[in-house]
Every structure is written in structure tokens, then in C-alpha cells.
Write a structure and sequence with these properties.
Keywords: Carbohydrate metabolism, Cellulose degradation, Disulfide bond, Glycosidase, Hydrolase, Polysaccharide degradation, Signal. With about 725 residues, the chain is α/β, with parallel strands linked by helices. It is built from eleven helices and 42 strands. The strands form three sheets. The protein has a 32-stranded parallel beta sheet that branches. It has an eight-stranded mixed beta sheet with strand order 1-2-3-4-5-6-8-7.
Length: about 725
């Protein structure tokens, strides 16, 4: 392992349910429900004063190495200086010496260290954090050295995250070996470390059923040590984890203690486990009332793997981008959930309630009864039958549909018109509503106006996701669109389609990913008046953001990456034959980061004939795109076209018809491009190298430009 990865953190895992229990029946069939006896050991909390903050954690080292970075102060105070665990996971290291040095430093400081032992053979079932000891004998030697290193010093140890919860990936022989090794580990800590509280990892709140996990814990020797750990590297709320902890404790006979990892559970879980967006730091390490301790076991900012919003960042590598997401509660500009306090009061003074305990059994019933200014409060849950809206509100009197206590999920209905179908109507607002599993479109608005989609989600559709046609004055704020265009290139429309006569559209703070066609598509609109900004768009077939035969479009402050098709750019500008006007005009592309796409970072394409004119490409960062920074497949452009203050990481670009100046080539000094951090490092050649003529007044972080003598080149302004 590299120095940067030596405290190799495992990934949070996708919860498994009954299938795990069924897969382990043979192994545990003989176990009886004998109550676990509490182990008496010296209390390490009584001889220390608070928990130990690792001075050499990945975030701490990063802050020392990047003191001038704009996020350094926040990462220092919110993460690096807070107590958390150090992971030991390298079978080739002198673990005894490393553990001894670490626990000795903590005792000198009078603090209680948190350690994680993570080296079992077949670790992580070969996933992002796969590896571990080469054999059981090697593991016993490694673990014995770990315990020897602690000696009589006070410590808290979490033993082998996921080891019990992931038994299902093993053969019966491997399961027996793993149980034996975990029992060996428990015995080592119990016999060698009188001032250590050790906890076997027990998965998360939504994984193995409590009784079955208690069964596994008994076999693994939980009765020899302090107890068990929950939520390691996962996102479930403390309340959910406490409920699971109480259930397991009850199944164990009531004597075991448990701890909960709160490092990243501030916003709870969203069903994803690998670098999901919209997550937030949880409460710092502390003693607790229900759980014995709430601990930062996962190191915030360390990647779960090459996935989610950490695409391109290997497991265990620290990323300031991921860290800042956790501090802010989501990617920059991405509001994963709209706080329920943001639901405006009904202008009419009337709220219609749907669901358990409500007046209406279905959303459709409430929609049919709603009048201008009403709110429709929908209890969190799933509602079949789709939703068809034939009437709306009135000027400044929205009918607002919102989920109460969680998302209101709409299924079924007529997918050809949209699972949520909005006809020729107006003044409608949706907050915390999801369209899921549509046989056609997720949601479609045709001929509508004054629409707001806030914290809106489309979770799977055969055709397009959110389709807005011939509509005006539309705001899409904090959405998530995924799993759309499931029928592939034969699907109608795109993940988010905006056009065909639409005007006055703003899309901001959205996450659009893993769709079978384009991500966000503005098309066939001669007067779009569209702003597409502060979005995270990735892992679509591509392009991630697309403007086709439209005029009056601004694309700014977006991060786009990992298109899947080699012909698809991160951002695409095109004139297709389907358009009647075959004209693209007055399009501005600025402050975007486009990296790691299968095609170019920015692509120009004309299907047969038409015109492109007045395109401005200013202060963007392009890096690691397989077909170069710019792909130019058009016969020419008209009007005034500009390439200025861009970073072309893949090589110089100067297509015909463009004024090109103040652009940088290659890596001018990024903070850490391997971690997708394209801020400018101190001393970067791009600092003060741009021109203010035509440059935006702010950068990708929405901070003012310039901050120094002149505008910087690229999407970010140095601070």
C-alpha cells in the first residue's frame, strides 16, 4: 500500500436481507440461545480524558500539505482535528510496532485511541476493499502482533468490519475458518489487553436480522469481549442503529454492549453504500446513553471506492472533494433533500392529507380535490396508480404536493403520458416526490407553466425520466434522476429532456446519473432561456449535458464525468436533423469541470447541415477525457465564438472559427487530480493567468473572481 492508503478503510456495504440468513443456516444450526455473559475489564474511559484525534490521518496529512487550499480550514476543524479511528489493514507491515507507537502516543496525550483491525483473508468478498492476510496462519500472526502492540494501554478496537455480515459470500469451509479466526481475535484481545474494550463488527441496521446476527456473534466469541459494533462505514441514522443494537442485545441475553459509527450518518442513508451524494458528518465521537459510544470509525473523506460521487478515486484515498461534501451535506450546489421546513404554507390555508391517518387514500383523490393555493401532504410511502394532473393552481397560488416524513413514491399509471402526467395546466409544485419504475416516462409536463420540482426523483423508467415539453417558467431544484432510458437507444426522450418550445427553465443542484441515454438535454428550442448549473452529471451513456438545436442556453458550474459511450462527450453541443430550425446559437459554457469521459470533454457535432454560432467556452477545466478536451465535428461556426481561460488537460485546442486565448494546457498544478480535486494548488501556473474580459464574476465554488491580481484559468479561483 502507499503511504496515503496505509489506513485502508473498507467500504460501506449494500444491505442484504433474508438471503444472508438463509445462506448461513448450515453453519449455525447447532447454536443455542445461551445468554452472553458480560466481560469484566478495566474501563478505558475512566483512565483517559476524551478520545484521541489521529495526527497522521489522511485528512490531517492533507491539511498539512495543502494549507492554502480553500477548503483546508473547514476540513481541519470539521474532520482532521476530531477524534476518529485508525485502520490497520496491511499484512506486510510491522503491525505490532505501529500499534504500539499509536497507543503509546495516545496514552501520553491522556486520550483514548480507536483502532480497527481489518486483515481477514477474503476481506470484503473481493470488493473495493478486497485483500487481507494470505492465509489463516498469517492472520493469526498479524492479529497476535496487533494485540501485543496494545499491551496494557487503554484502547477501543473494532474487529473486522463486515466479517460476520458478509459470511454469505464464502463457502461452508471458509465460513467455519472465518468464525474460528474471529474467535481467535476475540480471545487475543481478552487475554492480552486488560484495558481494552473490543467490539466485533455486526453490520448495519438494514443487513442481517438481529437474531441471526446474535447467533453469529456468539460463535465468534462476543462473550469474551466488550460487545459489538454497528454501522461501520455506513450511513444509517443513530436512531436506526440503536434500534438494531437493542434488538441484537436482547437476542444475546441483554449483557453485551455496542457502539455505533456516526462518522457519516448526519443525513441518514439513501439506499446507496459507495460514496453516495448528499450524506453528512454525524455527531463526533462521544459516550452515549443507549449505545455505549458513538464513534467516528470510518475516516470522513476517505473514498469507499471508484464509485458514486467518488468515481476515479480508489478505496482508501482521501479526497477533499468528498470531505467537503460531508461537511456541507452534499456535493457543492447539490441539495440532496429539501428540508421539510422549506415547504411553503398553503396560500389557501388548506392542507389535504394523504395516506395513513389522512383524509385521502390516494394522491390522485387529493389532486382531484385540490384548489389553487392548497398543499397536499403525502405520508411517506408508495402509492400505486400514477398521478394525472388536469388542473392546477393560479397566479402565485401553487398547489404543492410534498412528502411528509420521507419521499412520496408514485408507481404504476400511464407511462406513455408520464407516471406523473402534467397536462395543459400551471402553478404546480412538487417537493420530496419520486416517480419509480415507470413503463414509459417518469414524469412528463406538456404545455404547462410555472412548475417547480424540488427534491424530486425519478428512480427508473423505460423511456425518459423528467420530460418537459412546450412549457415555460420551470424550476428543477435538487433532483435525482437515475435508471431511466432502460430500453436503451430506442427509448423516447432522455433522463431529463427540456425543450420543444419550452422557455424560462432552470435546472440546479441535481444529480443525474446511470441513465441509458443523455443526462440533461435542452433540445429544439429557439428561445430556451435555459440555465443549467451546479449539477453533478455522470455515468450516463452520454453526453452528460447536451444542447441540441437550441438558443439562449447557459451551462455553468457543473461537474460532468464518466460518459459510457466512446462517441459521447461530457458536454455536447449539436445540431441534429430532427430539429426544424437546425440552429444552435448563443450558448455559454463556463466554470464547468469535465473529466474522465469516454469521449471528449466538450463535443461539437452536426448531423448533416445547419448553423452553430456565438458559442462562448470560458473558464472550464477539462482533464482525462479519452477523446481530448474538445471534439469538433462540424463544418464551421458563425458569429463570435470564444475559447478563453480554459484548462485543456489533454492538449492544446483551437478549432476554426474561435478566438482562443489565455488557455492552459496539461496539468498547470491541480491540488490532486487523482482524487478529482481540480482546485489550483499554490504556485499553479494557472493562477492569475487569465483575463477578466468575458470571464464570469464567480467560480465553480460560487466564490468571487478574481481573488488575486487577475482571473485564474480554469473552473476554480485560487484562495
Amino acid at each position: 500500500m502507499t503511504v496515503g492508503d496505509r489506513f485502508f478503510p473498507r467500504t460501506g456495504k449494500k444491505p442484504r436481507r433474508s438471503v444472508v440468513v438463509l445462506g448461513a443456516v448450515v453453519v449455525f444450526a447447532a447454536v443455542t440461545a445461551t445468554p452472553v455473559q458480560a466481560v469484566t475489564a478495566s474501563n478505558p474511559l475512566a483512565v483517559t480524558d476524551g478520545f484521541y484525534a489521529d495526527p497522521d490521518s489522511n485528512p490531517a496529512r492533507w491539511v498539512r500539505e495543502n494549507p492554502e487550499h480553500p477548503d483546508a480550514a473547514a476540513i481541519r476543524t470539521e474532520i482532521a482535528e476530531r477524534p476518529g479511528a485508525r485502520w490497520f489493514a496491511d499484512p506486510g507491515a510491522d503491525t505490532r510496532a505501529e500499534v504500539s507507537a499509536y497507543t503509546s502516543a495516545a496514552r501520553t496525550a491522556g486520550k483514548l485511541p480507536i483502532l480497527v483491525a481489518y486483515d481477514l483473508p477474503d476481506r470484503d468478498c473481493g470488493g473495493h476493499s478486497g485483500g487481507g492476510a494470505a492465509s489463516p496462519a498469517e492472520y493469526r500472526d498479524w492479529l497476535s502482533g496487533f494485540a501485543d502492540g496494545i499491551a496494557d494501554r487503554p484502547a477501543v478496537v473494532v474487529i473486522e468490519p463486515d466479517a460476520l455480515a458478509q459470511l454469505d459470500c464464502l463457502t461452508e469451509e471458509q465460513k467455519a475458518t472465518r468464525i474460528d479466526l474471529l474467535s481467535f481475535a476475540a480471545n487475543e484481545f481478552a487475554s492480552k489487553n486488560p484495558n481494552t474494550w473490543a467490539y466485533l463488527d455486526a453490520g448495519n441496521a438494514n443487513w442481517v436480522e438481529a437474531g441471526e446476527m446474535a447467533n453469529r456473534l456468539r460463535r465468534a466469541g462476543v462473550g469474551k469481549i466488550r460487545g459489538f459494533a454497528l454501522n461501520t462505514s455506513n450511513y444509517y441514522t443513530t436512531e436506526e442503529s440503536v434500534a438494531k443494537g437493542k434488538a441484537i442485545t436482547g437476542a444475546l441475553g441483554g449483557a453485551a454492549h455496542y457502539v455505533v459509527d456516526t462518522s457519516r450518518n448526519g443525513n441518514g442513508a439513501n439506499g446507496e453504500w459507495c460514496n453516495p451524494a448528499g450524506r453528512k458528518l454525524g455527531v463526533p465521537s462521544q459516550t452515549s446513553g443507549d449505545a455505549e459510544m458513538l464513534l467516528w470509525v470510518k475516516v470522513p473523506g476517505d473514498s469507499d471506492g471508484d464509485c458514486g460521487i467518488g468515481t476515479g478515486i480508489p478505496a482508501g484515498k482521501f479526497s477533499p472533494v468528498l470531505a467537503k461534501h460531508l461537511i456541507d451535506g452534499g456535493p457543492r450546489g447539490f441539495a440532496n433533500t429539501a428540508p421539510r421546513g422549506d415547504v411553503p404554507p398553503p396560500a389557501s390555508g388548506r392542507t389535504l392529507t394523504v395516506g395513513e391517518g389522512g383524509r385521502y387514500g390516494t394522491i390522485q383523490q387529493a389532486a382531484d380535490a385540490a384548489q389553487p393555493g392548497d398543499n397536499v401532504e403525502i405520508a411517506a410511502g408508495t402509492y400505486a396508480g400514477g398521478l394525472r394532473l388536469e388542473h392546477g393552481g393560479a397566479q402565485d397560488r401553487y398547489i404543492t404536493f410534498y412528502g411528509k416524513g420521507g419521499p412520496a413514491v408514485v408507481t404504476g399509471g400511464d407511462g406513455d403520458r408520464g407516471q406523473i402526467a402534467i397536462g395543459d395546466t400551471s402553478w404546480l409544485r412538487f417537493i420530496g416526490v419520486t416517480a419509480a419504475g415507470s413503463a414509459g416516462f417518469g414524469a412528463m409536463a406538456n404545455g404547462a407553466d410555472h412548475l417547480v420540482f424540488q427534491d424530486f426523483r425519478v428512480d427508473g423508467s423505460q423511456d425518459g425520466g423528467l420530460v418537459v415539453l412546450g412549457s415555460r417558467d420551470v424550476l428543477v431544484d435538487g433532483c435525482e434522476i437515475s435508471g431511466t432510458n432502460a430500453r436503451g437507444t430506442s427509448a423516447d426522450h432522455e433522463a431529463m429532456s427540456l425543450g420543444e418550445g419550452s422557455s424560462g427553465i432552470e435546472v440546479r443542484g441535481c444529480r443525474v446519473h446511470d441513465n441509458g441515454e443523455e443526462g440533461i438535454d435542452v433540445k429544439y428550442d429557439d428561445d430556451a432561456k435555459a440555465k443549467i448549473h451546479d449539477n453533478l452529471v455522470y455515468d450516463n451513456r452520454g453526453p452528460n449535458i447536451y444542447v441540441d438545436s437550441s438558443s439562449g442556453v447557459e451551462i455553468y458550474n457543473n461537474t460532468v464525468y464518466a460518459t459510457k459511450n466512446e462517441t459521447k462527450a461530457g458536454i455536447g453541443l449539436a445540431v441534429e436533423d430532427y430539429s426544424e430550425s437546425r440552429k444552435l446559437d448563443n450558448v455559454s459554457v463556463y466554470n464547468n469541470v469535465s473529466y474522465g469521459n469516454a469521449g471528449a470533454g466538450l463535443g461539437f457535432w452536426m448531423e448533416s447541415d445547419g448553423t452553430m454560432s456565438n458559442v462562448r467556452v470560458v473558464n472550464n477545466t477539462f482533464h482525462g477525457n479519452k477523446k481530448g478536451s474538445i471534439g469538433f465535428d462540424v463544418p464551421g461556426v458563425d458569429g463570435e465564438n470564444l475559447l478563453r481561460n480554459n484548462i485543456f488537460g489533454e492538449g492544446a485546442e483551437s478549432p476554426d472559427g474561435f478566438t482562443a486565448d489565455h488557455n492552459a494546457v496539461g496539468d498547470p498544478g491541480f491540488t490532486d487530480p487523482g482524487a478529482a480535486d481540480f482546485h489550483l494548488a499554490p504556485g499553479s501556473a494557472a493562477i492569475d493567468a487569465g483575463t477578466g474580459d468575458g470571464a464570469p464574476a464567480f467560480d465553480r465554488d460560487n466564490a468571487p473572481r478574481p481573488s488575486g491580481k487577475a482571473v485564474d484559468v480554469g473552473a476554480y479561483e485560487s484562495r
